[in-house]
Amino acid sequence: MPELPEVETTRRHLAPVVEGAVITAVEVRRDRMARRNERPGDLAERMMGRTVQDLGRRGKFLVAPLGGGMTWVSHLGMSGRLSLHAPGEPEIPHTNVVIRFRARPEVRFVDPRTFGFMAAFTDDELAAALRAVGPDALDDLPTAVTLQGALAGRSAPIKALLLDQRILAGLGNIYADEVLFRARIAPERPAGSLLRDEVRALRQAIPVVLRAGLRHGGTSLDDLAYLLPDGRAGDYLSRLSAYGREDEPCRRCGGIIERVVVRGRSSYWCRGCQS
């Protein structure tokens, strides 16, 4: 579930703690979490003793250069979150990776479904891992003209293409629905059918929705799979206009929010004001 606002909120909380910190221990509780390296032990071997130079983000990836041609990469998957803890604090269930630092709080990767991962990549491995990741939906948003070119001739539903990380990196199910609602575009519309003004409205809606999610700490759903690193819930849930609001009145026109399935993903929209 964590999408760009949740990952960026996590980055902003973690950066002051980990930047400039020396890694003293890397403990992998479940080998699956280190599956993107050739061997699970590579994660610890490649990170131990290195200093976190920076903590950046590319779409849904957290990217931390460690020097010497090595980069620490984290992806939260569907249910993962990173949390900060004092050394020795009891671990909660599904704590799968623990990163310890010299004289700093430790970072714990909690992921019940283990779809997320942590890796330590060489420069070549990092380039390969990010090769299929498109421009960042917030920091590197393409122009409307470029976006229209990427959608031209495509018969796939626009909702499905918004989720395609090769076209835009960072959007997931929640924020794609919110973007389409704001742009007044139905999720099942063939992407290539969007007119110039509709693509422009779509492009304008993306940063507005993402920044709103950021302002409120991201979206924590009822399962609380996503929490901020300090344990608080994100506060954007009550401000959602479409996602998760099936059978509730549209905040814009008073119609009823409907749920449809687009390419296997639940999508929420208003028939009255999205076309």
Q: Helix content range of the residues, please?
A: 25-40%
Beta content: 15-25%
State the secondary-structure class.
alpha+beta
Q: How many strand elements?
A: 10
Major sheet characteristics:
4 strands, antiparallel
* Shape category: globular
* CATH fold call of the largest domain: Helicase, Ruva Protein, domain 3
CATH architecture of the largest domain: Orthogonal Bundle
Termini separation comes to 26 Å
Flag low-confidence runs.
none
Q: What is the overall number of helices?
A: 7
Radius of gyration: 20 Å
The CATH class of the largest domain is Mainly Alpha
Number of domains: 2
What's the gist of this structure?
The protein is α+β, with helices and mostly antiparallel strands.
Summarize the helices and strands and which ones pair or pack.
Layout: H1 4-18, E1 23-28, H2 41-47, E2 56-58, E3 61-67, E4 70-75, E5 81-85, E6 95-101, E7 106-110, E8 117-122, H3 123-129, H4 144-151, H5 158-162, H6 173-183, H7 196-215, E9 257-262, E10 265-270
Antiparallel strand pairs: 1-6, 2-3, 3-4, 4-8, 5-7, 6-7, 9-10
Written overview of the protein:
The chain is α+β, with helices and mostly antiparallel strands and 275 residues long. It has 2 domains: 4-129, MutM-like, N-terminal (N-terminal domain of MutM-like DNA repair proteins, Alpha-Beta Barrel), CATH 3.20.190; 144-270, Orthogonal Bundle (Helicase, Ruva Protein, domain 3), CATH 1.10.8. Helices cover 27% and strands 21% of the residues. The protein contains 7 helices and 10 strands. It has helices at 4-18, 41-47, 123-129, 144-151, 158-162, 173-183, 196-215, and strands at residues 23-28, 56-58, 61-67, 70-75, 81-85, 95-101, 106-110, 117-122, 257-262, 265-270. The strands form 3 sheets. The protein has a 4-stranded antiparallel sheet with strand order 1-6-7-5. A 4-stranded antiparallel sheet has the order 2-3-4-8. A hairpin with a 2-residue loop joins strand 2 and strand 3. The protein is globular, with a radius of gyration of 20 Å. The mean pLDDT is 96.
